[in-house]
């Protein structure tokens, strides 16, 4: 589904160049839930930005469902993001002037989908995430957990190929973080959503089916959960983080 082929990313001028990504390659199968981990400056957010087309690669290629997205023309970028990618943000990014139903279906409306079709698609995803009874509410009228579900529903309402999450639990307390991770896990298991999540937190990463570890812009290691319990997987993640060296407080 997603192929990242020997991508490199450089920042800076000719006399002061920083290599943020160094020939990173990996593949993501449909229905996987992958976490990307690494210390500050390891390149994990840069990698996600390149996959989301927010940033461009300096070399290499990124293919989504066979389409090379690494050099899409500007005219196609906005529609590509709306139609192919879903985003889950730390602070939900819901518009207070719109109901939850309108927030979830906003991208569909912008794409000029039939209003009846939009309503049906929103209802379907809202039922799967158990917020179909509050769609007429505004964000300020519902709980933080319900906002989380609405934000996740918006990310997957149009059948987006890939859900991207950059430190989605970074601004949340432990209870809200656990709720969001369980929602993402349910999206992956029940709705077969393909998720790529950047996180510094081993507990969050333990919800994934595979973890990629970056160090100095390179792919350092990976773990596949398989049939192991999440608790066992969590401790294996901590072991790899220990091998990364440096200031471990940056990554756990």
Q: What characteristics describe this protein?
A:
10 strands, 37% helix, 252 residues, disordered C terminus, single chain, Rossmann fold
Distance between the termini: 30 Å
Total individual domains: 1
User: Mean of residue pLDDT?
Assistant: 89
CATH architecture: 3-Layer(aba) Sandwich
Measured as a percent range, the helix fraction is 25-40%
Given the helix and strand composition, which structural class is it? alpha/beta
Using the CA coordinates, give the radius of gyration. 18 Å
Biggest beta sheet summary: 6 strands, mixed
**Sheet with most strands: strand arrangement:** 6-7-8-3-9-10
CATH superfamily: P-loop containing nucleotide triphosphate hydrolases
CATH topology: Rossmann fold
What general outline do the C-alpha atoms trace?
globular
* CATH class category: Alpha Beta
Provide a compact summary of the structure.
The chain has 252 residues and is α/β, with parallel strands linked by helices.
If you had to describe this structure to a student in words, what would you say it looks like?
With 252 residues, the chain is an alpha/beta fold. The chain has one domain (2-250): 3-Layer(aba) Sandwich (Rossmann fold). Helices cover 37% and strands 25% of the residues. It is built from nine helices and ten strands. It has helices at residues 44-51, 74-84, 100-104, 106-110, 115-128, 144-156, 174-190, 202-205, 230-244, and strands at 2-13, 16-28, 33-37, 59-64, 67-68, 85-88, 162-166, 195-198, 210-215, 218-224. α6 (144-156) runs parallel beside α7. It is globular and about 50 Å long. The chain starts with a strand and ends in an 8-residue tail after the last helix. Residues 246-252 have low confidence and may be disordered.
């Amino acid at each position: 589904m997603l192929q990242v082929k020997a991508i490199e990313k450089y920042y800076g001028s000719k006399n002061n160049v920083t290599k943020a990504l160094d020939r990173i390659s990996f593949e993501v199968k449909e229905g996987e839930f992958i976490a990307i981990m690494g210390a500050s400056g390891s390149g994990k957010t840069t990698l996600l930005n390149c996959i989301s087309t927010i940033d461009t690669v300096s070399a290499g290629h990124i293919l989504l469902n066979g389409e090379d997205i690494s050099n899409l023309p500007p005219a196609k970028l906005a529609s590509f993001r709306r139609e192919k990618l879903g985003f889950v943000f730390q602070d939900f990014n819901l518009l207070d002037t719109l109901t939850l139903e309108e927030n979830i279906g906003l991208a569909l409306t912008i794409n000029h989908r039939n209003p009846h079709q939009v309503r049906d698609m929103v209802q379907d995803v809202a039922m799967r995430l158990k917020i179909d009874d509050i769609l007429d509410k505004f964000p300020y009228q519902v709980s933080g957990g319900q906002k989380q579900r609405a934000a996740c529903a918006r990310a997957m309402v149009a059948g987006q190929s890939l859900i991207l999450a950059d430190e989605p639990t970074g601004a949340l307390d432990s209870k809200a973080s656990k709720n969001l991770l369980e929602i993402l896990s349910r999206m992956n298991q029940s709705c077969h959503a393909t998720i790529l999540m950047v996180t510094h937190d081993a507990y969050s990463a333990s919800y994934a089916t595979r973890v990629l570890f970056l160090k100095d812009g390179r792919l350092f290691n990976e773990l596949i959960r398989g049939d192991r319990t999440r608790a066992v997987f969590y401790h294996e993640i901590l072991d790899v983080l220990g091998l990364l060296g440096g200031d471990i407080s940056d990554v756990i």
